[in-house]
Amino acid sequence: MPAADLPPPRPHVADAKAALRVQLRARRSRRPDAAGAAFARGGWALAAGQDAVALYASTGDEPDTWELLARLHAAGVRVMLPVLAGRRHPDWAWYAGPDALRPGWHGILEPTTAPLGAGALASVSVVFCSALAATPAGDRLGGGGGWYDRALAHASGALVAALCFDEEVLPTLPTDPWDRRVDVVLTDRRTLRTATSGPE
After folding, report:
1. Beta-carbon count within 10 A of 136 CB
2. Which of 102, 134, 148, 179 has the fewest CB atoms within 10 Å of its CB?
3. pTM of this prediction?
4. pLDDT tens for residues 15-45?
5. Domain 11-195: which CATH class?
6. Quick one: DSSP state of residue 93?
């Protein structure tokens, strides 16, 4: 299935996903904090020593990625962030520090550096992606719209890690055939290698 041409969700799966997103977002809104230090530790363990990784600029009640971003940048790891102006079509740009960010789609901060195109994701070795929930098998529930499903088609062998809170690791999730599994589920309490990642 071409990354830019995902079919519409099946109605019963779409309804199940939508209902679950409402529950998960309500739960997140009641969390006391976004566990930035815990995600920075876990993310650093996956990304330390890599030349380049892809991350996302967290917002609202998402797992906090800002401490991880600062640590990677300070260590000289190149970090690619999403460019969301044309939300349906994935794009990326290199992070050049907190002063080189601007509000993009829905106010999400994105780099002011030159866009690199969707294919640039092939140049990184670790991709951290957002998630509302995930399973130990590697299924991931995103925010809807399929942005990461399209983006990950260009990951080219990178280790893909979904960030969510530990209580959002669920036994099963409603899925569509084009939903892309992840290799690692990174929570504020643990790092789970999924069946997708294969033997270590």
Report:
1. 14
2. 102
3. 0.90
4. 999 999 999 999 999 999 999 999 999 999 9
5. alpha beta
6. E
